[in-house]
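In keeping with the milestone schedule agreed at the kick-off meeting, the structural modelling team has produced records for the first pair of proteins. Each record is given below as a sequence line and a structure-token line. The laboratory manager (R.T.) confirmed that both were archived under the project's standard naming scheme.
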Amino acid sequence: MAGSSPIEADLAVVGAGAAGLYVALTAARQGARVALIAASSFAQTASYWAQGGLAAALAAEDSPAIHRRDTELAGRGLVRGSAAAVLCEEAPARVHDLERLGVRFDADRHGQLALGLEGGHSVRRIVHAGGSATGRRVVRELSALVAAEPGIEVLEHARATALLVSEGRCVGVSCGDGRALHAGAVVICAGGAAALWSRTTNPPGSLGSGLLLAHAAGAELADLEFLQFHPTAVIGVAGREGFLITEAIRGEGATLLDRDGERFVDELAPRDAVSRAIDQRLAQTNTTAVWLDMRTVDPARFPNVVDALGEAGLDVTRELVPVAPAAHYMMGGITTDLDGRSTLRGLYAVGESACTGLHGANRLASNSLSECFVFGARAAAAALTEPAVSKHAEPTPATPPSAEISARSKAALSQLAGMRRTGAGLEQLQRDPHPLVRLIATCALTRTETRGAHSREDYPELDPNFDAMHTIVAPAASAGLERWD
């Protein structure tokens, strides 16, 4: 209620997807008082929609070093090596922790974890739950644990409208209903920004609200030019437009065919390569879709995909599925270190809201859910070392501009900062009314090369001078470049 006393907590978590739930649980298990801000139901988070699994080196023939090599190859010379090392070394332990929390992952007939194969991975290392329903299963289990945890206060259907800042430190959050949270630290787990584009695999709320909150409060953002397009999103099927078909299906033998029925790409190449090949084939043939042939794949392995398309009248055991790339995952975000710390004291970020440099210019499939848990555990531990808020503090709300976007801005972003970009188009986007659209355009203009998910038609080659160079946007400043070794 407006005017009421602020809620006091050791930790405030913004966002209730996989990262937010895990951060809250991890902190509560350490005895912390946690306030979790959930703008929507758990079923509306991007994590809940996630069909991919968790990438972890669990097979006998795998290792963290091999996983790191695959991550760095997919990231096209822009992966921060230290971030990749942390993810690859700590992911197996996080999988086992989730099992201890009650998440049941798919197993083979011997009771061992069934490991899947996805694009860019050299060995089977993807842990799934319910086939392609991993996000749903994990979020459902974690949300039940959060609801039962006495140390966590969940503010349902509350929206963070501003971060509270005192003497250069983030000390809480204000909500749209007038409530305020005071906390020793704030962790933003509000997801990415792929729903800014017209054609997307994301839920409607993935508009980069966490990025705008952080930037308005004084935190740096990084690498906003890197938005990954998922190659196989359904197109032209009523009721299933943009529905993502997991890469794991291609790992089990599904193929991509052009209008003449010919294969034209290595289906298990990294996502940027597959998406670009599809985009080029669509342009060459003047068509809107290529075809995913999953008729040889056991439908029992991916029941939610088979059922969802069946409800739309498409029998994947007999028919081809029309697909085309769609905006899927933001590699950029709030600049953080390996413990989730942003450049603003007291503010942390985890998951798609954060940019550790782990994903480089092109995220390796299924590293993102692993990232939520690996860096979520680290951020929770680090955030709890922050001092309590002074009773004499008089924090000021740093209110960001609205994250809501018009259809016109969405269309402009999709046209001018889609899979093919030019300097002239990006300069036009810099005049767009939406603040995050302008920042994305500024970052994309700064990177005068083609690398991973960022493709400049006026700079079609990868430029080695940009290796390990990340695009940084400080508040009230133009974009610059910074080397992350």
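The second protein of the pair:
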Amino acid sequence: MSVRLRLTLLYSAILALTLVVLGTALYAAVSQVSMGATGDALSAEAHSIAISLQPHLGPDQPGGVPGSHGQGQPPGTSGVAPQPTHLPGAGGNPPAQDGLPGNLGNFMPPPDVAMQSTLQVRSPSGKVIYASADLKAANVTLPLSTASLLRMASHPGASQQSIVLLGNQRLLVLTMALGTHGTTIAVLQVARSLRDLDETLSTLRIISLTGGGIAVLIAFGVGWWLAGAALRPIKRITQTAHDIGAAQDFGRRVSYDGPPDEIGRLASTFNTMLSRLQAAFHTQRRFVADASHELRTPLTSIRGNLGLLQREPPIGEADRVAVLNDLVSESERLSRLVADLLTLARSDTGRELRQEPVPLSPLVSDVIRRLAVLHPDRIVHEDPHPDLTALGDPDALTQVLVILLDNALKFTPVEGTVTVTTSKHGHLVAVTVRDTGPGIATEALPHVFERFYQEDSARAGSGSGLGLAIAKALIDGQGGSIAVESKVGAGSAFTVTLPDSQRVLLH
């Protein structure tokens, strides 16, 4: 599944969920408010009917209306009552029962009530003593459960509301106990059809479902288009990356002219990565070319000397000895070059160097002693700072000092001087190798740490141009730095800076 489709489905799902929650809340609110309004209207009608019933309850029953003597109660609710029973015949006036008068057949409900509601009156025993014309025509009665009847008979003025199902329609029924002097004399039931309310709620439900479905479909289409527009720059970046990889054209860049948002930062990061890849690719190509050139020189010399040894008739003894000496020299040079290349390859792979306290004075003295064997006619001056300890790799630091001191001794005349100084600068310690050689030209200083770089006046000789590059790679791997200061005719100074181990341990 594509990101575009996932985003579109997410937008549509959020909208659908929001519409469901809002629709459900709206439906419940409309249903509750409408039912409450219907119940209030039915309660008002019941009290109006109760007042109209007073003259028909007998001359000795004044004040039978609930609430006229403080006995009225607010409407209650109960469950659906049992199935309705048929009226006891289609006659008009029921006989007097339970002490009730028999003249309810002359009762006429208020005209506005008769048009909207259904009316039924029961005796305290539950017998129907009056029914409106619509109930008589349908030959049905409004149901009343035994439990509700007993409650009404024992609680004059009590009332309850319930929803019943007659035929295929729902009715809201208000049952009210009419009584006086603490005695129930009749039970009034007023009902109103909920057909209009049900139709209204049904229409609202259909509109909500249909409108919500259409809104979700429209949102899906718009979301699909918006997601495509938002992801179009990413598609271009992907296509550009594919083309660059296929053509290996690291000079190409992603074109983006939009705002500096997430996609803008992605394009910028991608272009930065391409710049670094291009630089690394060019460096690699130059490194391979330079390494091939440096390897070809000793190999060509070795092959030529071997050809001389194979000549017939053989060369003279003196020439043979010279050829063998050249072979040994070129083999040693080839071995050193291969070792340097291996060291650089390991540093390029990000091989971690050790980080441990390294006392500088013993290390510098040991390196000077080693080089004294190779240069017995030279003296290296040491200017140590006592008790300095750097944080680094002792083997790598030894190799760096050997490279710097060997270069200084190689390019400094016999009458010149070479000095190694150790010093402390805040939380850093430094080792400086200073010589009085020919110096390095100003335009060559930025390139002295590049691989295979050789400057004619300062670095001419039999070296491969890898020594200072190796030194820089090893120092960088220890979290330090190396710098050079030089002036033509006045010598050079290479300074290696590393963290102070004592300061680091304290923190």
